[in-house]
Amino acid sequence: MEIHLLGPLEVRHHGLVTPSAPKLRRVLCLLGIHANNVVSTEKLIKELWEEDPPASVTTTLQTYVYQLRKLLGLRASNGSSPGPDHDAGAPALLTTPNGYTLSLAPDALDAYRFEQLAALGRLHLKAGEVERAADTLRDALRLWRGPALVDVTPGAVLQTEVLRLEEVRKNILEHRIEADLQLGRHHELLGELTGLALREPTHEGFQAMLMLALYRAGRRSDALRVYQRTRMMLARELGVEPSNRLWRLHQDMLTSSRDLDPRPVSTTAKTRLTSASEHPCQLPPNGRILVGRDDELAMMLHALSACSREGPNVVVVSGPPGSGATSLCIKAGHEVRDRYPDAQLYAGMLKDGDPANPGEVLASFLRALGVPDRRIPAAFEDRRRMFCAWAAEHQALIVLDDAMSVKQLMQVLPVEGPCGVLISSRRRMFLPGGVTVVDLPPLGTEDGLRLLTEVLGPERIAENPRAAADLVQLCDGLPSILHAAASRLASRPHWTIDHLVEQVRRTRSTGAFLVGAWSPLVTSVRRNYEVMPEALRTVFRRLCAIPSPFLPPVLVAAVLGVPEEFAEFLLQELANRQLLRIDFGMVPTTPERYWLLPTVRAIGRYLQAPQDEDLS
User: Fold this and answer.
1) What is the pTM of this model?
2) Could you tell me if 469 and 331 are in contact, meaning their C-beta atoms sit under 8 angstroms apart?
3) Is 199 exposed, middle or buried (0-12, 13-18, 19+ CB in 10 A)?
4) Which candidate, 92, 110, 111, places its Cα nearest to that of 102?
5) Which of 17, 121, 185, 316 could form a disulfide with 180 if both were Cys (CB 3.0 to 4.6 A apart)?
6) Are 332 and 297 in contact (CB under 8 A)?
């Protein structure tokens, strides 16, 4: 269904179905202007009857709502949202405790599309993208087919909304003409501005723009006459003198000031677009030393540097807890900043152990892009549309850290445009489209030793290289544990690597050491664990209690008392959530082997039976 309010009222739903009864039209218009928001019964009554409602006002209003539902084929539902048996995207007229809500796809309303394009055009103009601003604002104004609701007799409430829309239209028209003037289109604007100035003789903005266009077209005398005419009109109609803006413009014309000459905007716009200081960068600083990730980083940079016509370049990075997916994404983000100069946006998708609210993520992005809080839409879909409209035309990098699900990502990802997207994920994800997936394995012994050397220095490692190699093995090659172990040694120069290795071995079976020094890894495993269904948590805890780290499906089936096929399904689920690793056999007939990293298994036991001992 489509509702057109910017001009004559028009409703299309499998054909033209515009109501003809005056009060029915007013109810529909008020519900349409506030689509997807509750319109109170009190406001509807005031619109229809002002201060003199009939005795049967409630029943009469319910009748109008019933007639609208019947005429437009709208479903009805009590509550603020549709029931589970209905198509969430289908239009509906919902009854709420305090009024009624017209549930409608936002882009089905021309007034909504106008305001979104208007907001986007202002953003372009603010960013110095003058040509884009002019085109976008022109597209917004094309949606108007005449004065808003020109064939509807509004009541007091609706009249306020009509005046608001007209003021927004007038403001956007000024911005569009301002953009065209910056682009040097003064000759093309003369006819339009002459008509506007005559229709709005006391509108100083239109008069000033007409004066400027005439002056730049070589008609200074005509421009000065516009000023004199406007000054007389303001004195006669309002009893005031021209504003400082108009007076200064007049003075500049008298002195032929160079400030009135057209200025080239293409170079200015380009400079602004490539100036990182004028565009938001929310990337966290590069942190830990990255070792052994050269191939993965090269794959990510190649994917992000591609020129795609089908949509954003998307890279998903995942690995076991502690594998350094976040650090790698931040590193890659800094490497490609020049490729995405318009903005580098960052959001954590996990807040206090729970998935982040997509609406809040989008609001934080819009805020970073300069949208004032008062202009950020309240409804999630409106925020999403505004952000996607911006992203469709900008080279921006979006980093989403700690993503939890495909559904969560699809709510915030742009669907088109030249953006790059970096996602660190707590589970293996397969998004639609051409997505590059990077799986981070644990580091090998050689790379693990390199990492320890970078932190501790070669002399400390050379004292006992075998103990250092043992430490890499005990840390399962996970960068976060290796960094924690190296930091522990760096802060205790009197410790030998042997001493730390023995301490890890002594306390590993209880998890006590992990709770103290390696708490970041415990936190990471716990986050993966806590977002799983309770049944899968139980499976994980029981698998952690098995003495062997290797978990063939036949063994797991016996331990859990389930069929082998179901056991393999559970193993695959845990592997997708990065709590198990899969080791594919070199021989094609060898079945894959599922196994637990010893550190993850130790933490799993801790989650099952927390320990009080803390050796940190």
Assistant:
1) 0.55
2) no
3) exposed
4) 92
5) 185
6) yes
